[in-house]
Amino acid sequence: MLRLSINRRLNVMMETLEKIEAQLQKSMPRFEWELRKPLIEKILKLKKEKNVVVLAHNYQVPEIFYGIADVTGDSLALARESVHRQHADAILFCGVHFMAETAKLFNPEKPVLIADMQAGCSLAESITGADVRALKAKYPGVPVVTYVNSSAEVKAESDICCTSGNALAVVQSLKSDKVIFLPDGFLASYVARQTEVEIISWEGTCVVHEEFTTDQVEAYRAQYPGLKVLAHPECHPDVQSAADLVGSTAQMSNFVAEQPAGAQVALITECSMSDNLALAHPHVELVRPCSMCPHMKKITLEKIITCLETFQPQIEIPQEVAYRAKRAVERMLEITAPKKVVSLPLAATV
Ligand code: SF4
User: Fold this and answer.
1) What's this model's pTM, rounded to 2 decimal places?
2) What is the pLDDT of residues 59-83, one digit of tens each?
3) Ligand 1-lining residues (CB < 6 angstroms)
4) Is CATH 3.40.50.10800 the right assignment for the domain spanning 124-201?
């Protein structure tokens, strides 16, 4: 009986690996797959043994995104998902530190793991809780809207959070003629262009998106007539103006899915987003201007194995900070409708 059970589990594992291989071999040469296969196999076993759910951001590399994740998505989708993970004994977050912190806010009793504590974010590091308190003293009574790309300490000083996908809706929901919008200056200007509300902004930038230029966009358009250009609102306003659509990674994903066969699309965002969408939608040609997030790429299969074996490092947030930060995220979730989450059952079935 025991042998049958073990054989059955081995068969399921083999089938799962074959499915993952079929998906990933489109994005990497065979020898690379052969190098990664034992690592992925080990992670699938470890997360099954330890009942760990793996959440992965859209900017993670394909071997993490398709190889080991149970749920993938943008910041908002993953924030929502982390709320509903009661069945898991622990959460492994494949993304950057502020994202794992958000998962911890909603799972205070549960270990929330991140494979590299140094996986930070230039936006999150551009501002501190003390900076927010100084702004509130300067503009008394003005509500503070903070992009989720921020530390729990900064969220705790804020009235409400937002993502790139719901920033405008969040600002307008406050019914205030003035808001403090932190910390991304380019996202703030994107919102300001679409509302009468006066926006007081901060000068934080994303090191990935600020790299893109209008010259690049024009060069791609010259090379690919009919190209659709999608830009993230963390890009410079001139780049946003040069794009056909400005939107979050979820909005980009939906746009690509709806394109007819043969359409050519350029995503002005982090490299892995294009790699992952190209695998999901082979009918679309994704032109790939590439700017890589050094923080997202700190998460590797090797570090994930160590993290699952040791259950370290874990996210910790002081209780009084966690309580207030959670309220700011909850207020955002209350005013925004649930978005579609891309669930990948492959890894989860092992
Ligand atoms: S892509 Fe930009 S905003 Fe996202 S984690 Fe990296 S530095 Fe932060």
Assistant:
1) 0.89
2) 999 999 999 999 998 877 887 787 7
3) 59, 96, 121-123, 149, 206-208, 270, 293, 295-296
4) yes
